[in-house]
Structure formats: structure tokens, C-alpha cells
Amino acid sequence: MRRSGELASPSPLTPAPSQPASQRRSDWGTLRRLLPYLWQYRWRVFAALLFMVVAKLANVSVPLVLKELVDAMTPSRGQLPTGGDATAVAMAVVAVPVALLVGYGLLRLSTSLFTELRELVFSKATQGAARSIALQTFQHLHSLSLRFHLERQTGGMTRDIERGVRGIESLISYSLYSVVPTLIEVGLVLGILAVKFDIWFVWITAAALVVYVGFTVSVTEWRTKFRREANEFDSAAHTKAVDSLLNYETVKYFNNEGFEARRYDQSLELLRRSRLKSQTTLSMLNTGQQLVIAIALVAMLWRATQGVAEGRMTLGDLVMINAFMIQLYIPLNFLGVLYREIKQSLTDLDKMFTLMEREREVADKPGAQPLTGQEHPAVRFEHVTFGYEPARVILHDLSFEVPAGKTVAVVGPSGSGKSTLARLLFRFYDVQQGRITIAGQDIREVTQASVRRSIGIVPQDTVLFNDTIEYNIAYGRAGASRAEVEAAARAARIHDFIESTPRGYQTMVGERGLKLSGGEKQRVAIARTLLKDPPILIFDEATSALDSANERAIQAELRSAAQNKTALVIAHRLSTVVDAHEILVMDGGRIIERGTHLQLLARGGRYAAMWALQQKES
Ligand SMILES: Nc1ncnc2c1ncn2[C@@H]1O[C@H](COP(=O)(O)OP(=O)(O)OP(=O)(O)O)[C@@H](O)[C@H]1O
């Protein structure tokens, strides 16, 4: 028999490079980790087990009734008329045992009925557990640091989560729906054989089972590595495909469709080879299993036919034993798949749990309280030293203050660390030395949510959700009314553009907002930050994608939005920051000059040179 589950089975299991086998928890550990999710459905689990036992009892009774039926229809030797009286033989077999037939039908029906009931009762538990685990993983991923998200490979990671969730379903269905019922059935059948017939039947069945299980487990263990390999190649191919499609435009710019296809095909070829290996070894497993089953069946039938020939057993017994064997070996046929799928589900689950347990690099301190006094907060960087990697310091002993309600501008060459200031203020990373305070409180001492609630940013590169323009603007403040969304869009000078499109605010912006121009995207980002209306604002080259006319208009809006707010403005175009309270000139992660526009001009240093250059250009 071909195990349909084999080919159709999910393509799980890739050991994470970050999680070597030695660090994996044991299978029992994974099960223990899963139990709390099922515990809340314990009554359902209990009811499902009960239905399962009833279904199995009914199933095992079917061959017993079949035996009675056959025996009732077979005249015993003593009953058979002598002298070849055909009418008497016919008379002997006409008495149809209606009660047995009805019983047979009812038993068959109850087997299916209780199996369905078990499914019905239990699927709520399986789906519920899968849902809570998927949700928790999602929430945890959002709580992980920016570093994790910059390093992750989206394609592979989403595949891991998919497999983990599917792993819960397969684990439960394979173990609870297949292994446990089969064990119950084996026990019942062995019991019946032992009570009703000679011990040989028990020995043959038990020996066949031992050989069968031993063979299946060892061969499955051996061929698991081929499956694992196939899954690794599957993940790699998926990662490549996702990455390539995400970079669709770049691929076109460089005419690299052929290159991308070749790269993808290399992964597919590796996948094909390892899947072939997996398939060949599966055929070996199947053949071996069939051999064991065939030998056992022949041995049993030999004993049974001998029994019938010697008059110790009836024809009904023979039929019953045959029916038992067939009933028993059908589920056993799937043992290889079961064993492997269960092990695989456990590995997939373990991988997902590992993702869930991944430590947060930036975490709230136990008992951290929300930020207070953020109506008019001052922001201070005090002797901040920071590097994304230990080997490379980006900010060196940096100190400055953005006084409450004032605007401080940061200018300087590309890569000098300006945007890093914004990331640190948002607490995407923790500083290595020094501290950052908002309203006098170290941001590491208060909750991250309260820090982020009090800050609004218009980032350098805006990425939008693949949804409507309205959704993207309203994202700034949950529950904002349409009128508020429009007011923000007007202030960001994007309302007229939106109204001019056929679908207006319902226009879909496309994957990462790519259906909008750079300037339109930036204005949507400005609108949603204006809608958020936080006490601290960061404009990280907020108008860099706009033409000069639009930039001037929006600058006026931004200035009025920043009025009475604590604002950090990162800019390349110096003309946009001339009236800042203080301007910091950064280079190589250090503040090399600071002062007002006029002071810096008078100083005749780097700022004055940059100003002169930009004036000349414009
Ligand atoms: N996640 C990261 N991991 C490692 N290095 C990073 C990371 N992000 C930024 N850097 C490095 O930190 C330095 C400062 O980056 P930052 O984005 O703060 O520069 P910037 O002054 O804002 O530049 P620009 O004006 O071009 O936006 C850069 O050299 C950059 O390569």
C-alpha cells in the first residue's frame, strides 16, 4: 500500500543554523512545553479519548460478529445431512441471522460515528492550541529587537512558523488519533486471541509486531536525514524565491531574471535530489514492512486452516482472525509515516518554541513604569557611546539636549551617525555607555511602549503597508476619524493628490507602498505622524524626497507641527534648519560643532563651509 500521507505530508523541518542539535530540547521537553496549551481543553481531550476507546471497542467487535455470522451460516459437520440431500442442505442455510446482521451494521456505524465525534470534540482543542501558539509567536517576534529583524531571513522564518503551527496539528492527530488507538486495538486483539485460541496466535502476532516496529523505527531513523536534508533545501529555495521577488525591481534594473532563475533552480535541483533519495528509501521501508506483514499473515492463516482442518476451529474463527489481522495491519502500515511525522512535528514545534523563547535584546525592566511628565519633555543624550557591533563604535561620548518645546537640528555627512540617534531614542538598541533621558527619566528604566508613544518619527525611507492610503495614514492613531485623517493629509499636502485619484482614500498603495512616488510616500508618512501628534518629534530628512515647492510648503507645516514640541530634526539641506534652537554638526560619530545658525556661520568652520557650498549650488 502506498502511504498517501508520505507524499502529501508537509515539507517541514529545517534545523536552524542558530540552533545546533545539541541545543535542542528533548522530545519530552517539547511535549511538556506544549501541554499547557492543551490543558485548558482538558475536558475535551478526555471526552475525545473516551469516544476513541468506544470507537475501538466497536471496531474490534466487528470481526467477532462476523465470526458468529459465518458460523451461523455454516452447518457444523454433525448437522450436515448425509446422502447428499440437497434440499436438507438448502434448509440448513436459509435461516438468516437477522439480529447478527443488524448488530454488524450497528457496530460498523458506531465505529465511524464515535470516530467523527472524537474529531468534532477534539478539533476545537487542536485549533485553539494552534491559534494561541501562532499568536504568541507573532507577538514575540514583534517584541524582538531590530537587530533580529534586520538579520532574519523572512522566507525561511515564515516557513518555520508555518511548520510549527502545522506541527501541533500533525502531532496531535498522529499521536492521539493514530498511535493511541492502534495500541488500544493491538491490546484488545491480543487479549481476544489469547483467550479464544492457542497461544501460537499471540506469539505470531506479537513477534510480527516487534519485528515490524523495530524495522520501521530503525529504517525511519536512518532515512530521516534525507528528509531533513530535503527540508533544508526546501527552506533555502523558499528564502531565495521570496528574496528575489521582493527585489523585483532591482532584478529588472540589472536584467538578472536569468541569473535569479538559475540561482533558484540550483536550490530546486538539490531539493529534487534529496527528495528522490527520500522517496527511494521510503519504497525500501514499504517493501520491508509488507514482507513482515505477509509472513505473519501466512503463518496465522496456516495455524488457522490447520485448526479448521483438525476440527478445533470453525470457519468463522478463520474469517475472524483474517479480519483482525487486516484491521490491525492497516493502521500499522502507517507506522513509518507516523513515527517520522511525530518526530518531525516535535522538531518543528521545538524550533518554533525556540523562536518564542529567543531573548529580547531590549526588554522592559521588571516592574518598569510608564514615562511620566511627557507633556513637555526634554530629551538628553548624556555621554552616549554606542556601536551596532562591539568592534565598531558609531557614536563617541555624545552629549546634547533638546530642551522641552525646542527644536534641535543634526547635520553632517552621510554615515556620521545621525539616524542612529533616532534609533537609540526609540530604544531599538541600548547604549553601551552613558544614558538617554526623556523628561529626566532614563529610557531604560521606563516601559518601551510609553517611550514610543511619546515619540513620532518621519523616517528617511518610508515603507507603507500594502493597504489603502486611509489605512496607512490612520495607522498613526488607532480610532482616528475620517475627518482627522483628512486634516492630517491636508497638513502634509497630500489631500489634493489623494482626492485626484479615482479611488481617493481607498487607493491601494501596493507592496511596501511602491505604487506611490517617493514624495507621496513621504507625505503619507508625515500625515500619519502629524495624526499621532506626540510630544516629541523626529524628522529624519523628512522632506528629502520632495521638490523644492512642496518642500517649502511642508516645511512650514512641519514647523507649525513642531511648535511647542520637542523636536530633533535631521537634515541634509541646511536651509531647512536655520531657525533651530541649536544645530549640531556631526562627523564620525562625534559632535564637532554646535550653536545657532548665526553662531556657526560666524565661526567659519565646517558648518559655514557646508552652508556656502549649498548656497552656491542653489
Ligand atoms: N544595523 C546596523 N548594523 C551595523 N551597522 C549599522 C547599522 N545601521 C547603521 N549602521 C552603520 O552605522 C553608521 C551610521 O549610520 P546612520 O544611519 O546613523 O548614518 P547617518 O548619519 O544617518 O547617514 P545618512 O545621512 O546617510 O542617513 C553607518 O556607517 C552605518 O553603516
From TrEMBL:
Domain ABC transporter positions: 379-613
Presence of keyword Ribosomal protein: no
Cellular component GO terms held in the UniProt record: plasma membrane
InterPro entries (alphabetical): AAA+_ATPase (IPR003593), ABC1_TM_dom (IPR011527), ABC1_TM_sf (IPR036640), ABC_transporter-like_ATP-bd (IPR003439), ABC_transporter-like_CS (IPR017871), P-loop_NTPase (IPR027417), Type_1_exporter (IPR039421)
Taxonomic classification: Bacteria, Pseudomonadati, Pseudomonadota, Betaproteobacteria, Burkholderiales
Organism superkingdom: Bacteria
CDD domains to which the protein is assigned, alphabetical: ABC_6TM_ATM1_ABCB7 (cd18582), ABCC_ATM1_transporter (cd03253)
GO molecular function, one term: ATP binding
UniProt keywords, alphabetically: ATP-binding, Cell membrane, Membrane, Nucleotide-binding, Transmembrane, Transmembrane helix, Transport
Region (Disordered): 1-24
Subcellular location: Cell membrane
Organism of derivation: Ramlibacter aurantiacus
Entry-linked PANTHER family: ATP-BINDING CASSETTE SUB-FAMILY B, IRON-SULFUR CLUSTERS TRANSPORTER ABCB7, MITOCHONDRIAL
Pfam families cross-referenced by the UniProt entry: ABC_membrane (PF00664), ABC_tran (PF00005)
Name used for this protein in its record: ABC transporter ATP-binding protein/permease
Transmembrane segments: 43-66, 86-107, 171-194, 200-219, 282-302, 318-339
Keyword Ion transport: no
GO biological process: intracellular iron ion homeostasis
Domain (ABC transmembrane type-1): residue spans on this chain: 46-344
Membrane topology qualifier: Multi-pass membrane protein
